[in-house]
Amino acid sequence: MKPTQYISNSYTDECRFGFNGQEKDREIYNNENTTTATFWEYDARIGRRWNIDPVLKQWESPYLCFSANPILYSDVLGDKIKGETKDDAVKAKQQISNTFENNKEFDEFFKISETDGKTFSKISANKFENFLDGKGNYRGKGAAFGLNKEKRALAIAYMKTVNADYEINVKFDDGKVGGDFEPTSEKSGTATIGLARPEGDGYHPLNGAEGEKMVSNRTAIFVHEVVGEGRVWGNTGNLMNLNKFQEDAIKFGPNSPSGMKLNKVNLEIIQTENLYNSFRPHGFYRSGMDHNLTPKDAQNVKNIPSSLGSYIYGDDKGGVWGGKIK
Questions:
Q1: Residues 250-269: pLDDT tens digits?
Q2: Domains of the chain, residue spans
Q3: Residue 190 in 3-state DSSP?
Q4: Reported pTM
């Protein structure tokens, strides 16, 4: 059945915006069942988008919206990553820039939406990987990333975190030392970024090497809490798993299914932080012993996280999934 079309030159005195805070589009159906946003056209009759979601998720249809729960979730632009405030969003953008020593061409991909001044806009995975590979319109521009697998992996991790289906609210707290990540729902969590720890505080020797110290800075804390904790827990499909795995590991032991899952997640979090540590001038890696890693795990903290491995050399152009920074 072809719906009756309707063209209007004005909305008279009616509100232009409807469901999900999106603008009504009555030029398609003769009703208000269609709304439009920056990254999609939404059909409320079937609860689906018209175009394929650029953030492909292995567990659901690319046309699905709101994880099939429009009552619980919202998505005004069709994307998300936010600072707690506009100032937090600006600080988050600066930390992303600091990670790669203010590479202006890289920074251009990470933009804060003008709609609310807090949300990071979705990134085209193909354009981003072309930049990292120095191909197409970006020929020669991303060479520094193509030649360093750790830099490339961390750059991909940032892109995945911006593009994924969950949200990370980032807030900066100058009255706090270190950082933490707390899930607030299955699809959202808050990363608090405090000030840098004193040299060596809270870190343990790598591979039992006595006297080794880790030099911490705020960017390392940001990488750990946002791209590490937020992204890796988000990859489990439910951010509340953080609490569940920890509680079950205490109750049933480290060798229980939850204990082994917790160990795998913690290893990926430390590996993610060490991607950043690998190209910092001090040359130290975090051992992860204070993240309940075993001495055996410590042998693998320099490895590329398994969730990023297939993206290192651009051999996987498929779905982007990871986490949104909000």
A1: 888 888 888 888 999 999 99
A2: 1-78, 82-325
A3: strand
A4: 0.70
